[in-house]
Specification:
514 residues; 17-stranded mixed β-sheet; LRR_dom_sf; F-box domain-containing protein
């Protein structure tokens, strides 16, 4: 066995040495190692991450290695910064002619001695377009720019993160008019330290603002972890008649100001596809939760809205605010992990949420297809399939929707896949799919309008063949499918362009991947 292993290792080494693209990521390394990567990359653009660049920047003297690095670097991530040192200022004073993406992240907790006379803790970066002629994507974490009339005009992607200073809304209002080419805007964990409201006639009002003309080219807007009043203010600046626009609203904290749902007429334009569901948090997964609610609405007029919140009311409020006109054109509905069927696990869908979802479904008169998605990834998804959220011909008026196609799809969650190979061989990864309740619901005649039924499961999920035969006797067509991945509603192409900051969070936390 030694000879084949040796040959394989030799082949892999040859492939690595002959593949310059494998040598384009350069870190905060010793000079000899950096020189090796520069040599092996054979002139290709570089991606550089410097977690603490202060010591490294001191080496950026007249050496050939430093000059070549600065000339070739295309992506530069600076993280874990504690203060704006002379060495870091020196780095920003050097020309980076090929730099296209810059990420600068200072520590979130600034020290009082770093504050200026106004109490502002942000560090101001001296970036200029002359030294960064090709910069298009910029991430600013707990920092600001020394001047807004420099690099902003050519940016296509801008992310502002962890900015809690006095009058931050004025800062945002000053930045946006300078962004003449902006396509993606991400603002997260931003908060006014002073009062955003103005006192007019004895009453507190939000400042009156107009849409910023330069925001007409925006295609993606993401607002996360901020108060409702600030989100409302930002939306007032950016929502125009963009031909294509995707908006993400996540963790918008309630307050006493006007609701962001007042923008429903500009966020929702005749949606034809709607997704509503519950999703386990990607971190801190514990038995019984936690989970979040998510809603996505997309339409023929090329406007996509995604909202994420802790309750159904938070994410569905925008749909209700729009009234019957908003839901009149919905033809396709996806319901994810919201099965009302009874099971022995905690966190099954509460009765109030069942009623609210049923009411929403009944408000979609042109509904043609419903997809019920369930993932074997959380305790409440152990429930068998059920049609109870759909209108019943026995209980509901004739005017309610009668979707002819229903698709019931199951998939494996991440934790099931991780556990798959560690379980005892005699223990199945998931339980057999129980169709008893579904058969009883169809046999009752309450859902006679369902003509086409699709049942989709991942591999190695057992289904009783006799139950499938009984389903075929109750519907015109019953299609059985096996799918390796859990299906999701396809988003329009304008939602998919990568953003300006590193990110690996799954749906529904980002409209686009980083």
């Amino acid at each position: 066995m030694l000879m084949p292993i040796s040959q394989t290792c030799g082949q892999l080494r040859t492939i690595a040495l002959d593949s310059p693209s494998l040598w384009t990521s350069v870190g905060d390394w010793p000079r000899r190692l950096s020189q090796l990567f520069l040599q092996r990359s054979q002139g290709l653009p570089l991606k550089t991450f410097l977690p603490n660049p202060t010591l490294y920047v001191h080496d950026l003297g007249p050496t050939d290695t430093a000059k070549e690095l600065l000339l070739r670097v295309r992506e530069l991530d600076l993280g874990g910064l504690e203060t704006l040192t002379p060495a870091l200022e020196h780095l920003f004073s050097l020309p980076l002619p090929n730099l296209e993406r810059l990420s600068v992240q200072f520590v979130e907790v600034a020290q009082p001695e770093d504050a200026d006379e106004s109490g502002q803790y942000l560090f101001e970066l001296p970036l200029t377009q002359e030294r960064l002629p090709r910069l298009r994507r910029l991430y600013l974490g707990a920092c600001d720019l020394a001047s807004y009339d420099t690099v902003l005009s050519s940016l296509t992607h801008l992310a502002l993160h962890v900015i809690n200073v006095p009058l931050v809304h004025a800062m945002i209002a000053a930045i946006l008019p300078e962004c003449h080419s902006l396509q993606s805007l991400h603002i997260e964990e931003v908060e006014d330290q002073d009062d955003l409201f103005e006192l007019l006639g004895g009453y507190r009002h939000l400042p009156t603002v107009s849409v910023v003309p330069s925001c007409g080219g925006l295609r993606r807007v993401s607002l996360l972890s901020m108060y409702n009043r600030l989100a409302f203010f930002i939306l007032s600046l950016v929502l125009a008649d963009q031909p294509q626009l995707a908006v993400q609203l996540h963790k918008i904290y309630p307050d006493s100001s006007r609701s962001i749902t007042m923008h429903h007429h500009r966020l929702l334009k005749n949606p034809s596809q709607v997704v509503i569901g519950r999703y386990p948090q990607p971190a801190e997964r514990v038995p019984g939760g936690p989970y979040v609610w998510g809603m996505t609405a997309s339409g023929s007029e090329q406007r996509t809205l995604r909202m994420v919140g802790e309750t159904l009311d938070e994410v569905a409020g925008m749909l209700r605010e729009g009234g019957a006109a908003t839901l009149a054109g919905v033809r396709e509905l996806w319901l994810t992990d919201v099965s009302p069927a009874a099971c022995d696990e905690p966190n099954t869908l509460p009765t109030a949420d069942v009623a609210a979802l049923s009411t929403l479904v009944k408000s979609m008169p042109t509904l043609e297809a419903v997809t019920l998605v369930n993932q074997f990834q959380a305790p409440w998804t152990g429930a068998p399939p059920s049609l109870r959220l759909l209108p019943s011909v026995h209980e509901d008026a004739v005017s309610v929707p009668r979707p002819a196609t229903v698709r019931i799809s199951y998939g494996y969650g991440v934790h099931v896949l991780n556990w798959w190979f560690s379980r005892p061989h005699t223990t199945p990864a998931v339980r057999p799919l129980d169709l008893t309740g579904l058969l009883e619901e169809l046999s009752s005649g309450a859902y006679d309008y369902i003509r086409h039924l699709v049942l989709e499961t991942p591999p190695l999920v057992n289904i009783n063949a006799g139950d499938v035969d009984r389903l075929r006797a109750l519907c015109e067509t019953v299609e059985m499918r096996v799918a390796d991945e859990t299906p999701t509603m396809a988003l329009p192409a304008y939602c998919d362009e990568p953003a300006a900051w590193p990110s690996n969070e799954p749906w529904p936390y980002r409209l686009w991947l980083g």
